[in-house]
Design goal:
Blueprint (H helix, E strand, L loop, with lengths): L2 E4 L4 H9 L4 E2 L8 H11 L3 E4 L6 H6 L1 H17 L3 E7 L22 H16 L4 E5 L1 E3 L12 H7 L2 E4 L7 E3 H6 L1 H4 L5 E4 L8 H12 L4 E4 L11 H4 L8 H11 L3
Parallel strand pairs: 1-2, 1-3, 3-4, 4-5, 5-9, 6-8, 7-10
Helix pairs in contact: 4-5
The protein binds NADP nicotinamide-adenine-dinucleotide phosphate.
NADP nicotinamide-adenine-dinucleotide phosphate binds next to α1, α4, β4 and β6.
């Protein structure tokens, strides 16, 4: 399978590149026109485009919705219009306005910020253009730093580096080991078109997850309970029915701890 990976130096893209040794890294798409993107795809002739490039920071999207629209909607729409099979990362933020307890299945959406609204619009437009498009809703992902790759803020590094942190006993959401996301990407690339919750499940609150990790690694961090209710807990049955099975949040953390001998 000849895969073109966008965002190959990003947090997820770099791990996908190291997992798929023959994947072709796309150049930065930040200043590319739609014509540049079409020419790139025409030159590479990929069997599949794995699209990770995005503005994935929620406050940045809030501050600059036009830039978010270009990065998070227009570019993926342009890629899908090339007629190639596309696997595109979306986000569990599409559940950010849901009032329920979770877990949320793929249809239970209620986006509560610009980033989430743009991701949801992108999902709907790319599927309208090409129903074979695969949309992967990812959770907050973590890893140790990778040599040569900018390390974005993530749950594990926050826990390892901070003296104090606040998590909510009312937030039920998963965190996912990004290396599992990369490990399962070949299977994701042959999924039938549609939207998939793609990550770990978790029936613990973020506070309990953080307390578990603190105890497991004997971390000196002080953890407090922050009043909040922002359940993003995903029901991943649909992906599981296609044999895409992530470890749950605690099992994923144990795997990461073992991989790095933490
Ligand atoms: N990280 C998470 O925890 C998380 C959680 C849920 C969903 N996601 C989604 O998963 C995907 C990958 O996330 P990530 O954490 O790997 O993202 P990232 O590291 O923040 O960014 C990936 C790449 O996007 C490119 N990029 C940045 N700004 C851009 C712009 N204005 N226009 C076009 N490209 C731009 C950059 O590549 P260049 O420098 O080469 O331009 C960057 O390396 C994204 O779709 C994100 O929304 C991530």
């Amino acid at each position: 399978m000849k895969a073109l990976v966008t965002g190959p130096r990003g947090f997820v893209g770099a791990r996908i590149m190291s997992e798929m040794e023959n994947a072709i890294p796309a150049p930065s798409l930040r200043s590319c026109s739609d014509d540049d993107i079409r020419r790139l795809v025409e030159t590479v002739q990929p069997d599949v485009i794995i699209h990770t490039a995005a503005i994935s920071d929620i406050p940045t999207c809030e501050k600059d919705p036009d830039a978010s629209r270009r990065a998070n909607i227009d570019i993926p729409v342009c890629l899908v219009r090339t007629g190639r099979k596309c696997v595109i990362f979306s986000s569990d933020q599409v559940y950010s306005g849901c009032a329920g307890e979770g877990p949320y299945a793929e249809d239970d959406v209620s986006p509560a910020n610009v980033y989430a609204r743009h991701k949801l619009e992108m999902e709907q437009r790319t599927l309208d253009i090409c129903p074979d498009t695969v949309l992967l809703r990812a959770t907050w992902m973590y890893d140790m730093p990778m040599y040569g790759v900018p390390n974005r803020g993530n749950f594990l590094m926050l826990m390892l580096r901070s003296a104090d942190a606040a998590f909510s006993s009312g937030d039920y959401r998963a965190v996912t080991y990004v290396r599992e996301v990369a490990r399962l990407i070949r299977q994701a690339a042959v999924l039938p078109g549609g939207v998939y919750n793609y990550g770990s499940e978790n029936d613990l609150s973020m506070l309990d997850t953080a307390l578990w990790l603190k105890e497991r690694l004997s971390l000196p961090i002080r953890i407090s309970d922050r009043p909040a209710h922002n359940n993003l807990w995903m029901d991943c049955s649909k992906a599981k029915s296609h044999a895409i099975c992530f470890p749950n949040t605690i099992e994923g953390l144990k795997k990461c701890i073992a991989d790095y001998s933490l």
